[in-house]
Structures are given as structure tokens and as C-alpha cells.
## 1
Amino acid sequence: MKVAKFGGTSLASAEQIKKVTNIVTADNDRKIIVVSAPGKRSDDDTKVTDLLIGLGETYLNEGKADDALAAVVERYRDIAEGLGLDDDIVKTIKDDLKSRLAYDTSNEGQFMDQLKASGEDNNAKVIARFLQRLGYTAEYVHPEQAGLFVSDTPGNAQVLPEAYDHLYKLRDKDGILVIPGFFGYSKEGRLVTFPRGGSDITGSIVAAGVKADMYENFTDVDSVFAANPKVVDEPCSIKRMTYREMRELSYAGFGVFHDEALIPAFQSNIPVCVKNTNNPEASGTMIINEREYATNPVIGIAADKGFSTIYVRKYLMNREVGFGRKLLEIIEDEEVSYEHMPSGIDDTSVILDDSQLTPEKEDRMIRRIIDELNADDAYIEKGFAMIMLVGEGMHETVGIASRATKAISEQGVNIEMINQGSSEVSLSFGVHESSVDDAIRGLYEEFFSEKKVLQ
Amino acid sequence: MKVAKFGGTSLASAEQIKKVTNIVTADNDRKIIVVSAPGKRSDDDTKVTDLLIGLGETYLNEGKADDALAAVVERYRDIAEGLGLDDDIVKTIKDDLKSRLAYDTSNEGQFMDQLKASGEDNNAKVIARFLQRLGYTAEYVHPEQAGLFVSDTPGNAQVLPEAYDHLYKLRDKDGILVIPGFFGYSKEGRLVTFPRGGSDITGSIVAAGVKADMYENFTDVDSVFAANPKVVDEPCSIKRMTYREMRELSYAGFGVFHDEALIPAFQSNIPVCVKNTNNPEASGTMIINEREYATNPVIGIAADKGFSTIYVRKYLMNREVGFGRKLLEIIEDEEVSYEHMPSGIDDTSVILDDSQLTPEKEDRMIRRIIDELNADDAYIEKGFAMIMLVGEGMHETVGIASRATKAISEQGVNIEMINQGSSEVSLSFGVHESSVDDAIRGLYEEFFSEKKVLQ
């Protein structure tokens, strides 16, 4: 049995949905499909989730939002007509949206959450109906009825362990099951959405729950690439990579998945296959537990901007047992997590993700480092990017760090930070944001230039 | 005014002491000399400090130690005769040693401390007497009378700030002042020895106290070398280096100084000159505040063995605010300080100096990391060496890390850890102990092979 998840662009229109149902019905193993809300049909289109956000905000501000509601309904009507469905499905969706608008608005976050989740939910209903019309046994599955229970943390749902047992019972159902992605339910029955990468998370949880043989993740690229195609021209395709590699790459800014989306599948050791809805014949990228890495110890290069460094200097710091701990305590008091902490004899740096910082937090941290730790100097520097070179074979291959630093230097880029020594599958570099693309191109040239496909 | 410190090999025999007095009297600025105990006259000789330790241990075990006492007295008699001094100096020394043996033995540490310190103390008396015999105005200076007050921490004396004001008054004295190195006195009048590098510390403190124009440190090499001569054949000489460079190099196992010995001189901005007693014409190595580094951004390579790594893996570690702080707290509870802490997404390593570890401490740390931090895995790996590449110009020179990693890799050495990003003047690597010499030779070849003297 396979669980297949389809993203927003794969479901943006009747035409796209037909591709999806063709894919689903072409393989009897594709028993469960997890769907996103309809995405953009073209670059200047608006995806349904954004229409729903507009609808919710207008309603909150003005107490009514007839035009915005009509715009959402029209998107579904357009799809339903293209699929040859009866008008009653459109009416069902319109009634559903009206009942969601009637939800208690005193908690705006919860109001918006249940409205946004309608994008996936109604799309699942449309697709189930279309499969039925085509003559297949198919069923829309409500996440609460399927037992997809999550923590009651709006916008950041975490799956509860018992959900897996409930989901396993989906195996008993006949035909094709269509499940909306992006949300689950708390034990108290409240709809709660997942963080970034929501539909991928649902797919991954369902695949783990039903103990699928494979989790297929359909998107709009033929495979995962070794580097960002916006930075490197025609980067080579990755045919096979490990969970660890995928996790490190997506953590460091790889766009395909949010770094935690695949965790449930990884933990259940279910192979993940990334495929293209628009070209389902392409073999895609398999994400598995282990791979041979003799020919390509390095599999990918990821990068992310927006890092800051807290630099701290104190004479004889290395003699002061507890200095590093006290420094991390000050950072922790601001609820900021850190990325790396390289250290010298009399100085240490802490690298942080900018998104967690505010001018007030920065001021408080620096003041406390000076006052409480008696540092001789402490300041924050902004504008760093972190580059991560990832590959299962890196740790055992002599010379990777040498080739990587050389490749970066030859681009005229100064390496501000190197972090190697803990992870066996990655090596990370800090550079100034302005030179990160040059550094990536240099690394790509060094490790991938003569390859087309990474086996 | 110059303060000159002479090490044990410079004062091992009458012949050596004559070289020293020639050096001292050749320059009127050399007003204060700080002396070690007589060192080894040849490779298979025993230095006086070790004779004194043997004397103390025999006395503690057997309640008497006539032979051992005679052996020490004989060393001084030999020197005194070679210098043409009267026998009364030998009698003075013998009486001094007897009175030290009569010291309270209930605190063995203090008993041994005051006995060991006699090596420097009596040597200073001999040298002052010899200078007087040569017709110079010279005086033995007792550290307590000079006000060299230190913390009451046996074997780990730290100078008290007021000592500098007392020492400044030494400027008022006439002639050459001879001060024994290695110890000071607590405010309660107890003799307390300095940690490793004791005589260097005394010289540095005295130079700072009297606001000397220069602190000359006489040893048995013409200069400081860019790498360990036992690993690299005829390494090139360093003519000029900065305090920071010296401090980083000596921290990482450079033999010339203990890394903190020169701090008082550094803090008072007094130039330090390392010179050779056996070849005083050689210009030596100047250690100063700043240097030009255009031609040689890297100045030296140091290395030290005996490091361990605590490896900790926990799924989603990067999401857990406070993990690093809690880990360092566990290590701190064992009174262990750490060197570096490289980190990945789900794992982190802490690099520690083996000398601080015991099997019990290791067990407790690992158990607490598993139990209290819920780590998925935690273990200690031994047998690492840290290599430090040091130079003021490194931070501003693109490509240093690249050349360094390449040079190490070309020796077939795998780099286990790289730490760059905090110190502006160093870059450190972790390798297995068995391959550290190969790595050093590779680095030397890359950065120094075509140079003879580093300006």
C-alpha cells in the first residue's frame, strides 16, 4: 500500500486534478491520497489558502465578506465544472464556508485556522467526488473521524502517539481514501493546523499510521536537485538519498520539504519518493535509510541567510569553568535557540537565527553578557549565511573539507566560520550573505560539475 | 631597565652561570635577573628540583635523608667551587636545607613546596655572591621582602594586584638584583609556588612591577620556531610575533612558555625577548603588541595530544532550547572545563582535555546525559590531538582554511573536527593522535617550506 500526497500546484485546476486521478488510478497500491488546497494555476494567480486568509481578514474587519466568499466559491465551481461534477458539491462547499464564518471570532487565531483548513478539506471532498464519478470506490476521510489527534497548539500541532493506532484502521476501508492535509484535531475536538509544510506532515503521519510500503510525495519537479536551481544552472538530480541527508539539507534551506515534515515516515522506516505530477514517468528521488556513497560522498548543498553572531571576548575565558554555560543561559532566558558556538581561548561566538531576535532581546543579552559575565567585549554582527554540504560519505572520505574550503576560497569568498566535528553527514560554513551564491556555485562546481544524476 | 630571566639549563653549572653573568654585566640595562634552579648539565643528568623532590620524599618516608641531602649540597658545592666562591655559601645552603627539612610535615604539599622552592632560592644566593666576587654591586632579593604577594593556593599561586606596587620600589635599589623564580608569599607569610612555568611567571610579574623596558627570557634556543623541531626538521625561526600569537601557540602545546606565564608582561605592554644563553648574539624572538603580517599571515603551528570527545545525539536536539546549556552544566558539575563544542542538528560534541577526566567522572557524565537529557546516544571517544594554526593575518587572508585542510588531507589524514569562527588569530583542527605529526608536517610544508626566518 502506498500513501500519495499531492501539493497545491498538482491540484490547482480541473486539468491538474485529472492528472492526479490518472496517477492515483494507474496504480492499485495508491490507496490513500492526501491533498493540499488548490494552488496557483499560473505565477500571477492567487492560491486558495491566500483567498481564504483574505476572506477571514475581511470578515473580521467588516463583519461580512460576500465578494471574498464568492471568489473562493468560484474557484471550486470552476474546478467542479471542469471535472463535470454536479452543482451540489459547490453548494456543499459554500454552506461549509458560511458555517466556518459563523465560528466564534473572539479567538482570531482559531477562527483563521479553521477557515484556512477548509482549503484542503473541501478540495478532498471534490476529489473524492470526482473519483466516484469516474466509477471508482472512493471516500473522503475526515481527519477527526480517522483519529488524527494532535496537541492543542494552534499553528504548531504535534501528532499524538495514539493517532497512529487509529490511522492503522484505515487499512480496513475499501477503495481510495482522500484525506485533507494540513490539520488534525485535539482530543477536545478542536481543529489545529500543523506548522510549515502542513500537508507533507499529514501525508507522513498517515503513511506511518497505515504502515505504508511507500510514501509518495507528488510535487512539480522531476526530482530533488543537488543545489538550488535559482543559484546553479541545471543542477543535477538526486536519484537516491538518505533520511539524514534530506533532513540536514531541508534544515539548511532546501525548499522541497520542511525539515521535520518527513519525520514520522523516517521513524517508521517508510521509503519516501518525491515525484512530479506533471511527469509521473520520471523516476523521482527516493529517500531511504541507507545508500551506497562510494561514487558521491557529497549529495547536496543547501544554504540559508539571516544569521547573526554574538561575539564575546574575555581574557582568560578558557580558565573559567562555567562561562559557556552562563552565556547559553542568558540566550536561553530570551527564548532564543542557537545554531553553533565556535570558541577560541579568550573568545567565543554564538550563531543565532535572526528570526528569533528583536532589538530589545539583543540589547538585553549584550548588556547581561557585559554586566554579569564581565566580558571585555560583546557585540552582535548581522548578515551571515550558513552553507551546508551534506553527504553520507563525507565523514569517511579524506579531503572533503579541503576541497570545499578551496572551492569557496577560489570564488574570493572569505570563510567566517567552519563547523565540522559532530554531524557525520554535514559540514557547515558561515559566510557573509552577499557572497553566499558565489560560494554555492564554487562548491557545486567542485563536487557536481561532471555529474548529471546522483545515483 | 631590563628584567632578564634565566632558565635551568642556563644555570646548570659554574660554566653556564659564567655565561649568564657575562650576559648580565655586558648590558647596564640588565638590572634585575630572575633565576631558576640549576637544571640538567646533560641529557642523563638530574636537575636540582628533581633532587629536591627525591630528598623530600625520602625524608617523608624514612624520617631522614642524609644521602639525598648530600647530593643536593654537592651540586651547589660543585657550582660554588667552579665559580671560585668561599665554602661558607655551601654551608649556608646546607643549613637552609636542614631548616627546611625541619618544617612541619603534617601538610605534605606545603612541606614539599618550600623544599622545592629552595632550588631557585639558593641558586639566586649563589649568583648574587658570584656577581659580588666579580666586583659588581649585586644583591639577592627575597621575594617576600620585595613584596611578591600571591594568593594562598599551593602550587597555583596567583599574583595579588598590590604586589606590583611593592615591586616597583626595586627600582630604587642600586646594582644588580637577583630574584629567585617560582614562588611568592601569601599575606600570612606562607611560601606558595606558581603553577607550571613558575620562573617565567616570576620574571613576567617583576618586569610588570618595575615597569621594565623589556623582559628578556633566556633559554637554550636561538629563537621561537614556527613548529616543533622534534616533528619538523629545522623549522624556521620567528623573529617577531604578537602576544596573542604567543598565547595561542603556547596554549596549544608550544613548549617555550606556559600560556599564562607572560600575561603580566603582556598586560603592561612590555616587549618580551626570547634569547639563547649559549648564543646571546642571536637576535632571538621579539614578542610585541602588533606586527606586520602581509608576508606571513600564519606564524606558527602548535599541537597537543590527550583530548577526548563526548558525543551526544538526540533527535530534534536543535529544537530544544536549553539543551547545550544543560549539557555544559553536567560537565561543569564535574569541574571539567571544555575546549570546543561543535554541533549539528541532532548531535553535538564536547571536546575536553583528558587530564581532567577520571573513569568515575566519565561514567557520571554519560549516565546523566542519557538519564537527565534523554539523549538517544552518548559516549566518550579518546585519543584526539588538537592542532592550532596561528597568525595575526589569517582572518583577513582568503584561502588559509583551504590551504590548511588541503595540506592535512594530502598527508592522508582525516580531519575529525574543524573549529574556526571566533578567534581572529587561530584555526584549530582535531585529528587522531596517531596522525598528528603527519598533519603538522603537511601544514609546515604548505605555510613555511620556503622561508628561513619569519620577520
## 2
Amino acid sequence: MATVLGFMLAARRSEMQGLIALELTCELVGGISRLVHALQRERGFSNMYLSARAERFRQPLDQLTSDSRGLEQSVRRGFNRMDPETGRGADKARLFNRIALVLHGLDGLACLRRRVRDQALSPQESTRAFTRVIGGLLAVVFEAADTSVDPDITRCLVALFNFMQGKELAGLERATGVAGFASGLFDLEQLERLQYLGEGQQRCFAIFCDYADKPALNAWHQLCTDPVEAEIARLRLVAARSLPGQPLEASLGEPWFELTTRRIDAMKQVEDLLTERLQQLCQQKIRQAQADLDNHRCLLERLDQFDDASDPPETRLFNVQATELDGAPGDTMGQQLNRSVLDLLHEQNQRLQMLAEELDNARSSLNERKLIERAKGVLMSRHGLDEEASYRILQNAAMERSQRLADVAQAVLSLADLMPNASTRVKAG
Amino acid sequence: MATVLGFMLAARRSEMQGLIALELTCELVGGISRLVHALQRERGFSNMYLSARAERFRQPLDQLTSDSRGLEQSVRRGFNRMDPETGRGADKARLFNRIALVLHGLDGLACLRRRVRDQALSPQESTRAFTRVIGGLLAVVFEAADTSVDPDITRCLVALFNFMQGKELAGLERATGVAGFASGLFDLEQLERLQYLGEGQQRCFAIFCDYADKPALNAWHQLCTDPVEAEIARLRLVAARSLPGQPLEASLGEPWFELTTRRIDAMKQVEDLLTERLQQLCQQKIRQAQADLDNHRCLLERLDQFDDASDPPETRLFNVQATELDGAPGDTMGQQLNRSVLDLLHEQNQRLQMLAEELDNARSSLNERKLIERAKGVLMSRHGLDEEASYRILQNAAMERSQRLADVAQAVLSLADLMPNASTRVKAG
């Protein structure tokens, strides 16, 4: 039977179940962070192996593959635990669909690895294939951030997603640098790409800094002041100042790879702080929700006791707000308890409203990201541009008008809605 | 085991389950619409009964009470069907908490009705008590609109919520008019209240017009051009042009009550069109999702068949996008099917993203409403104003600066965040 107290408890239980499901998602995100790191290392080494055609890279590459495989199994176990039957609504549908895409990518890795060992594809092709799988994994982290039910956890997931994305761009920068430095020159496309990847990292790490907690921020600032950072900056300048197609010192390939690898490995430590924080937050929130639920049960029991006993307890247990006509008639204590239930319901109501607002705020950077991605998509499909060129158009427009990137993206989308005739659809890569 | 196709189907099933849960909510909303209408009639008659102290109103009042009770039972059955155990997350928690508040209000109706019959309270007190219960029911409809998983259904729920809210303001206008016309004069507070209620109706019906479908809009325009509307407008003018405290013709009470009752009953017909449309939309969406799910299952079976059979089917069943490295190696047909799965996943992905955006758009008016309600709450708690006065301050500021009401509300809230010291909390009424 539907009762006030039944639904009051159901509300708290729903919150609790939401947090428990979120904890599972956060565990999965931790596993994804580790797998992405392993795949990034494997991608980097595969790239070296294919560029240098050096058999001495074969043994460490096999080791990295084996690491990736182990972490892949743990992510797959995380997927298995997700119980697709309990999902409801489009939020879950998006997450499940993302997971299906990830699984599709992971299923294809065996074939990719065989071709790498057969030297049957170019470093660029190999990088692209790994990048697609990593992109799919990052999309799962984005979905997790976008559907988290707790503002603090959302903030932590937003920080983590942006950090992972920044680290992924750092990985692509490493690969582009390896290709250039190893071949002894950069072509125009590679130079533009390096610039794009550098700017992308700045944006991602800026958002990370807005959302991360103190320990992660400190670790990040430490990393930024490390001598490795300065040496990488010097090599970036060597590349940036070279003329397209003009030969460089070919011996810079390995130092670039080693330095950027050290940087990326150091980034992993910041990431680990974030995933630890995520677990702590989940546990803390669940403890809190459990305590609230226990308090509610306690109130329920008191109401029951009062129904049974003839003497009302002497102490006033709850704060009483006298509002006319709320509550059924009865003796004073019953009325007091009844009103304290009403107070509690109003308090819950306000708390849940606040929670929803804080969630919206925590998600704002995700929404801006979605806008920018969609605007890029429109430019790519309608004008046949690639991702970098589309991004540059948005960025130039934003600088010219002193507008935020998200506002320019919104303008592009509004314009596209007005002219829906050019409707070539984008295939996500 | 986590497989591509398993999660692909799970995604579609999640959407399906979300729609089925939404259909249940929409049925409940239909029941709430009927109960609110009955309670509005009962409130109006209770008001008449208490104002006129006329025993001839007793019998029709008892009939209206009996109608309300019947509809209350059906709403309670709707709550019972909701199965609080399946809810997860803060969205459901908000809904359940709202329902707990509604049940608290419904439980108090027996006492209220007894006091009305004992003439033990003023018409204003009775109206306030009924209004609180109706407000709680409207909040459930708001929550339903805010958590609906389909953009078209959200639009319909937004239209319905605003229409119900407008109709509720029309009911309060009726009560305020009855109080004034029956007592033979309006005091300043009543005159200001009539103006507030009139403007509130305009806002609500304007949003309704933005979101409603053709049949409901047509019915609404017909209602607006009905002679009853002109007669009510004339009586509104009589009140508005009277000086505060100056006697009127006392005989206008009953014509006002009858005309406004006819108007509100006519509104109920528009509302019925909206709730019917809601049911149709739910059924249509579920049919569509079912067909999609069947198509997916069909693809799955074909993949299975292909795994068994040695001869690949002769026709090309699916569109093939040749992208390098997607898909495991194998014979051509297997690769084609594999790629068609990838296409399907990317399509789903895009569709779900679009759905999320459309949902955001459909919810925009709800978000504006939340902003305005919160800003009113801040003004009420910090400056000890009542709801009408707070609204008027927002409205005047918006007119002076030629800004939207939501923007002014946002400014008030930002300012309040900067000065959190004056932290008297609002008790929701």
C-alpha cells in the first residue's frame, strides 16, 4: 500500500541504489584508466616498431601487449558486472551502446596486433586503429561523468575525463613527433597537427584544473615544473621552427619518445590520484546515504512505538513547525511526529532540488564539450573538412569575436538548423 | 559474457523499459489531472459553502467530495503500481519524495472536509488547505515532465503541466472573485491578487501554446473566443475598476462562480485532449521501440545463421562502409555483417545523442521555471516577502531592464550566492 513513510523511505533507497550503481561505474572507470594507459604504451611502441622496423622493440612490445590483455580482461569483467537488465532509459542506453562499441574495438585488437607484427600496415594506420579503441573507452568515461547522480562525483569524473583526454592528446603528440623525428623531417600536416594537439592539451588540462581536488592539482603542478617538461618544450620548438619538409637531426626520435613517455607515465600518477579519490568519494557518499536511511528508519520506528504506547514520550524529539491544517487531528505528540515527517519531506525536497542544480553546474563543461563536438561535426559533414580544420575555424571565429568557443559552436549549430538542406551525415570515426 | 551484440540489445531494451516506465507515469499523470479537477471543484464549492453559509450547497458539495474520493483511490492505485523498489538515482528519489508529500496531503483531506462541514474554518483557510494538496499533485506532474525520457512526450507533459498550472490559477482567481463578489467588496490585497493570478495564467497558457499539439491548441483557441470568456472579462473589469473597500453589487458572486466554473470545466476538455495525446504518444513510441528491437534481434539471428551456414547469402543485406581495420578478418560476408553492426552502433549513438539534445531543449522552459521559483524563494526568505510580492519584484526588474524573467531570476540567485550570510531557510508551503 502506498504510504507517506513508504515513499519517503523509497526515495532514500533510490538515492542509495543510484550511488551503489555509480560506485560500480567508477570502479569500471578506474579499470578503463589503466587499460587506456596500457593501450597508449602499446600504441607508442607499435609505432616505434613499425617506424624503425627494429626487432629489438619486439620483446618489450610483446610485454606491453600482454599487459594490455590483462587489463582488458579486468575491464571486460567490469562490463559483465553491469547487469544490462537493470538499466532503464536513454542514459543507460547511451552507456550500453558505448560499451558495445568498445567491445567491438577490443574484439578487433587481436587482428591489429598480428598485422603490426607482420609489419603489414603503416605506423599511421596502426596509431589510428589504437586511437579508435582508446577513443571508445574515453567515451565511456564521458558517459559515466554525464550520468553520475552525485555532484561531487561528477566533478571528479569531469576532472578525470579531461585529464585522460589531455593525456591521450599527449600520446598522439608523442606519436606525431616520433613519426617526424624518426623520418628526419616534418611535413606541413604534421606540424599543424602538433600545434592542434598542443592546444587541445592546454584546454583539457585547464578544465581538469577547474574541477580537480587539491592532491591531484599539486601532483599536476609538480609535473609541470619537472625538467622533463622543459626538455620536451625544447624539442617541440625544434619541430615547430623547422620548415615543412626540411631535414632535422634524425637522432631526436628516441629522446623524444623517451621524454614524452616519461611525461605520460608521470601523468598516469596524477590519474591514479583521481581514480583513488573517486573510490573514496563513492564510499563516503554511500556511508552518508546509509546513515540518512538509518535515521529515517529510526523515525519510522518511533512513530510505530508511539502508535503502540499510551503515554507519549516526555521529550520533544523533533522540531515542530505549526502550520495550520497540516496533519490529521489527534493528540499532541502524534501531531508533533506527523509534522516532523512533513518537515523532513520538505527538507528532502529542498536537498534534492539543490542536488539537481549542483549536478547541472558540474555538468556544464560536458555540455559545452558536446556543443563544440557537434559544431565540429556540422563543419566536417557540410564542408568536407577534417576535425582539426573544423576546430581551427571555430577557434579563429572565437578569437576574432572575443567570444567563448561554446558560444561560437552554438551559433554554428543555430545556423545549421536554419539551413537543414545540406544534410550529409557524419560517420563517427 | 559481455558481447557487442549483448550490449547492443541491452541498450535498446533500456530505452524500451524507460518508455514502459514512462507510460505508467503518464497514466498516473492522467489520473492526477482528473483528481486535481475534482479537488478544484470541491475547493470552489467548499469556498461557496463557507462564504454563503448556505445549506443548499451541502448536497452538491457531498457529491463533489465523493467524486474526489473515487479519483483519489485511482491515483493511489497508480502510486501502488509504481513499485518503489525499481527506482534508482536522484530523479526517482525526487519523484518518490513528491509522492510522499502528496500522500501526506491526501491523508489530511478527511479532517479538512470535516472542518468545512462544521464551518470550523474560514473560506481562505479552506482554500489554502485544498490548494496545498493540489500544489503537491502539480509538483508530481512537473517531476514527470522533468524526468521523461522522450522529447515528444516531454513536450506534451510540459504543455500539460503549464495548462494544469494555468487552470489552477484560474481556480484561485475564481475563489478570490467569489470572496470579493460575495462579501460585496474587494480589499487591496484581493485586487492585487486578482491581477497576479491573471498575469500568471497568461504566462502559463503562453508556454502551453508553445508546446501543445494542434488539436489541443484548436480547442484552446475555441475556448478563448467563447462568449463566456467575454463575460468573465467584463466581471474582471468590474472588480479591477472598483476602489479597495468600496461596495459592489453583491449579486455578482453567483454569476462569477458559474461563469468561471464553466470556463474551468471547458479547460478540463483541453486538458483531456492533452492526456489522451500523452497516452497515444507513449503507445506509439513503445511500438516503434519494439519494432527497432525486433530488427536488432533479426540482425542477430542472421549473424547466427551465417556462423552456422557454409554458403554466405547471395544478397547484400546491409550497407557496408569500408573503414580500414574495423572488424576481424574472415570471409567477405562475415566482414560485411560485422561492419553493418558497427554502422548500426554508430547510428544508435548519433540517435541517442540527438535524443538527449532534444530532451534538453524540451526541458528548457522547466529549467526557467525552476530558476524563477528559486529566485522567488530567496526573496521570500531574505526579505520576508510573500510569493506575490517576490514575483512582482522580479517582474518589475525584468520590465525595467527589458530582460527575460529567467535572466533576472538568475541575477538574483547569483547575488544571493555571493552573500550567503542571510541564510534564513524557506519552508515550502
